[in-house]
Amino acid sequence: MAKRKQASEQAPVTPGETAPELPKAGTKAKEKSADNSAETARKRGPGRPFQKGQSGNPGGRPKVPDEVKAMLKSAAPEAVRLLIETIGNENAAMNHRLDAAKEVLNRVYGKSTQPIDGEVDAVLQILFSDEAEEYAK
């Protein structure tokens, strides 16, 4: 790293002659910080892995191939039979029978909504910065 000459070490300037141009203070630091920010932008951290406004998955979810859809559709009747047999099988574990029954009911009628019930007796208070400082004391 090159050291800057002290004012006493510089050659004297004679009248009519201009002093040599010295680099402005902080110029190299600004260049270095600009390099750092460009480098940081290339190495995105865990908080923001993609450029702002850019999707991480621009193509979307991959489509299921038609052959796979056809195979699954052909296996559906057997899957339904298995669920129904499991529900009626008294030797099967009760949790398996209940899971099979839930699956059949969810597929036929849809999942039931979860109502939010209960009385809320809370107060919402909005504090502005001055009030927040007083509240914190």
Give structural notes.
- The chain is built from 4 helices and no strands.
- By secondary structure, it is mostly helical.
- The two termini are 51 Å apart.
Name the features.
137 residues, mainly alpha, 0% strand
* Average predicted confidence as pLDDT: 75
Number of helices: 4
Q: Rounded to an integer, what's the Rg over CA atoms?
A: 36 Å
How many strands in all? 0
The biggest beta sheet is recorded as: none
Provide a brief overview of the structure.
With 137 residues, the protein is mainly alpha-helical. 46% of the residues lie in helices and 0% in strands.
Structural topology:
Elements: H1 27-42, H2 66-88, H3 94-109, H4 129-136
